[in-house]
Amino acid sequence: MIFLVQIVGAVYGLLAVIFGAFGAHALKKKFTEDQLKSFETGVKYQMYHAILLLVLGFNLPFSSSLETNMAYCFILGTFLFSFSIYGLCLTASKGKKWKFLGPITPIGGLFLVLGWGLLLYRFVRNFI
Q1: I need a surface site. Which of 30, 89, 96, 104 has the fewest CB within 10 A?
Q2: Cβ proximity of 11 and 51 under 8 Å
């Protein structure tokens, strides 16, 4: 599990840099200001959680279901949240917005919130 978390964290970080550069240069001319802001939000959240996954991957043993489920929440949540935003922005810029992606973004956000909640619980569980 440690290896998976580290690999996914590194891939998410790599892609966040690529997508950020792509958004800042290639998409700047094709996106509206709102689409560009949304795309940048997806990139930011992807990078934040890439770094988090790397930190967790180097600091947690993933010996409990709590830690494993937390990692899956961050991995899945980041994918659903950021990549649905990318899809919404790209398709909207071509006039063919994939509306089915709209509900996926908040589901990804819920997974991210759950992951952070599990991380908080891991820290305070001995005090409760």
Answers
A1: 96
A2: no
